[in-house]
Amino acid sequence: MAATGGERAADFAGDADGFERLWTPHRMVYIDGADKPADDTPRQCPFCAIPARGDEDGLVVARGDLAYVVLNLYPYNPGHLMAVPYRHVAGYPELTTAELAEVGAMTQGAIRVLRATSAPAGFNLGVNQGAVGGAGIAAHLHQHVVPRWQGDANFMPIVAGTKPVPQLLGETRDRLAAAWAEHAEVEAVTTC
Ligand SMILES: [Zn+2]
Predict the structure, then answer these.
(1) Out of 24, 62, 65, 165, which could bridge 69 as a Cys pair, Cβ 3.0 to 4.6 Å?
(2) 108 within domain boundaries
(3) Is there a binding annotation on residue 72?
């Protein structure tokens, strides 16, 4: 084969085929364990560190009194959000009533904002408890809000591996944060 300066797929070894390639190097970072805490302490915890960062830097969409909403750095779908209590707590039963209410209210707000901005056909809501339950950061509870569209992959590929994400995270955060004030309708829950 003649040498060329480019990196055309046809120049690589092997037979060309009809498949499109979907390159998702951000998933490899995840698989390699980037951002995984070395232990379960708050000092190592990304969910404890995020609120101290700026909204754009931390991908924070909204901040409440007891919980905040952040874009998932490794999204299953575009607009994949998480409602997270500020307090470093691993288990759902360990949340106070007020924290439970605000995580719930922020989850409702996230759904309203995603409906207003990108009209998903459905949602998956969920908390993965413990590493064996699928939690990437098991020590700090977080509620996933995953928008779903007709014709996107079914849930098994979503939980099992790679997923194309067509929108850059920063752009998504800007759009959702701007829509939050108008559409989230989250009431204060500190009266609990
Ligand atoms: Zn934490």
Answers:
(1) 62
(2) yes
(3) yes
